[in-house]
Design a protein that fits this description.
248 residues, alpha/beta, Rossmann fold, 9-stranded mixed β-sheet, 7 helices, 19% strand
Length: 248
């Protein structure tokens, strides 16, 4: 059986060191689950990006040191808001549109989750002010606990059984404020209410998580299960317009 191709954009245009360090982690996680990672260069033309994603069965939106331009959700940037990455935003929008139109499986991680939420009309908290250490960084395996919605798809994927909480790593200073259209909260930080995951309605694999499962692939069965479920959904994907799902 042919491995499903997963489109993964370069994380950031300005910070090449970050991209060189982090993109292989997402690629490795996809390969671990039996998928074929496909790099989408941020300098590629829109036509080339569209052609590339058309050859893929799934989309993974990775993290980034940038922040989504707050003007996209009707706000001015606060002092603690990091610079936006216009090239990354443009590529994300093309990939999001393709996944939405053709009902492709989509997984957003950290910035990728925030990008998905804003694209769907949601808003973000520009800078978290909480006692929970959401900025623990890439060397911390377990930063804080999250609570997972009992009836969520995410809970079934992670295989938590009767457990209500999961320890996750954390490396972000922004979070979802208002959820975008069609997204429902799937996990949250119980001590401060920060949204840690959201998912879509229906049978499309549409998931965003605020932590970094690709960084703890070896240590975390839950992370392995998340990538496996995503790649399996991509392997099973068949072209279908979103309007067909509504009609069903």
């Amino acid at each position: 059986m042919k491995a499903p191709r997963i489109a993964i954009p370069e994380p950031n245009l300005a910070d090449s060191d970050y991209s060189a360090r982090s993109w292989p982690q997402y690629a490795r996680a996809v390969e671990f689950a039996g998928g074929e990672p496909v790099k989408v260069a941020l300098r590629d033309s829109p036509a080339k990006v569209a052609q590339l994603v058309a050859s893929c069965e799934g989309v993974l939106l990775p993290g980034s040191p940038a922040d989504v331009n707050p003007q996209k959700y009707g706000e001015e940037a606060e002092p603690d808001c990091a610079a936006a990455d216009a090239a990354r935003e443009a590529v994300d929008e093309l990939l999001l549109q393709d996944a939405s139109n053709l009902y492709k499986p989509l997984l957003g991680i950290c910035y990728g989750f925030q990008s998905l939420n804003v694209w769907r009309g949601g808003t973000l908290v520009q800078h978290l002010r909480t006692n929970i250490n959401h900025t623990a960084g890439r060397m911390t395996v377990e930063a804080h606990a999250i609570e997972v919605e009992a009836r969520s798809r995410l809970r079934r994927i992670l295989g938590l059984g009767t457990k209500m909480t999961l320890m996750v790593n954390s490396s972000h200073h922004q979070s979802v404020a208002v959820l975008g259209d069609g997204l429902v909260r799937a996990a949250w930080s119980p001590e401060d209410g920060v949204v840690e995951a959201a998912e879509g309605h229906g049978d499309q694999f549409l998931m965003g998580v605020q932590w970094h499962p690709e960084r703890v692939l070896e240590e975390s069965k839950a992370s392995q299960s998340l990538f496996q479920s995503f790649v399996d959904a991509a392997a099973a994907w068949e072209p279908r317009m979103i309007s067909e799902s509504v009609a069903d």
